[in-house]
Amino acid sequence: MKKLLLVLFIFFLFGCTKKKEYKKDNDYIYFGSYPQVIETNKDIINKLNNKVITPTKTNFNNWNSYEYYLNDKMSNYMFYIDINLNNEKYRGIYLLDYRPFYTFGYSESDSYQVKNGYLINNIYWFKYGKIKWNIIDEKDGKYKLISNLILDSQEYYPKDIKDEFEHNGSIGYSNNYELSSIRKWLNNNFYNIAFKNSEKKIINDMLVDNSNSSSDGISSTYLCNNTLDKVTILSYNEAFNLFNESERRCSSTDYSLSQGLFNTSNGYNNYHLRTPSSFNPNNSYYIDYDGAIHGDGQVIKGYVYNTSIGVRPVITISI
User: pTM for this one?
Assistant: First the structure.
C-alpha cells in the first residue's frame, strides 16, 4: 500500500506537471514559432511539393491568398500554405506576380523579391522554428520581449491620403497607429500564426503608450490614443532610449526576405517603429540597417505604404 501511494505521489508530482510553453536561455527566451529558414533539402522539398497543387487566380487549390496590395488594391497574386511533414511544420509560398516595394505602381523592377531571389511560378518552403526573443525588461515574472530577428515585411498602411479618413473602424490619418494595418496584422495574423492556444494564455495585454512621450518630443497632429494590444512594435522613444545604434541593428529571416524585405549588404535590415512622423501624415518612423532612426526630414522616408520595411514584434509574457 505504501509503495502504491508513493507511486501515485510521484506521478502527481511529475506526471501532472504542466509543460512549459517557453525556454529561457540567459538573455533570451524561445517562445512561439514562425516560418523562418528556407528548406534546401531536395528530398524534403519534393515530398512537400507532392502534397500540393499550385494555385491560380481562379482556383486557390487549398492555398491561402496573402491579400497583399498591388496597384493600390488588394489582390490575389501571392499565396501560402502550411503543411506538416515528419513532425515538422512548413510554410510554402507561391507568387503569380511580384510584391511591389510600394503598394502604388508596379513593375518587376519595383520588387525586392526578385533581388532576394524569389521568383514567380516557383514554390518555396520555409521551416517553422521557435522564435528567439530578446528580453527588454523583467519585473515580477513579467518579461517584455522583442524578436531577435526581423520576422516579416509589412506596410504600415497601404494608402497615402493627406487628410483624415475613415478606416479600420474610426477616422484618422494614414500614419495613425491605432487604425494602422500593421497593428491589425500584428494582433490578428501574426498572433494567431505564431502562438498556440496554450501559449496565448501567458501572453499579457499591454497598455501601449502612443502619447507624445512615446514620440520624438515634438508635438504631433498624428499621434493616436493609447491602445490595448497583445502584440506591438517599438516606439521612437523606446528605440532611442533602450538601445544604442549598434544594438538597434537587426538581421532578418529567409521568410521575411521572401515577403519583399529590403535586403542590404551588411547583414542588417530595416524595421518599423509604431510612431508616426510629426510633419507628414504618410510617414512613420523606422530603424535602418545601420541602427539609425528615420522618419522626419530624412532623405529616406518611412512611407506608410512601403512594403519592404520589416517587423520585429514586441510582446509581454508571464512566466
Answer: 0.92
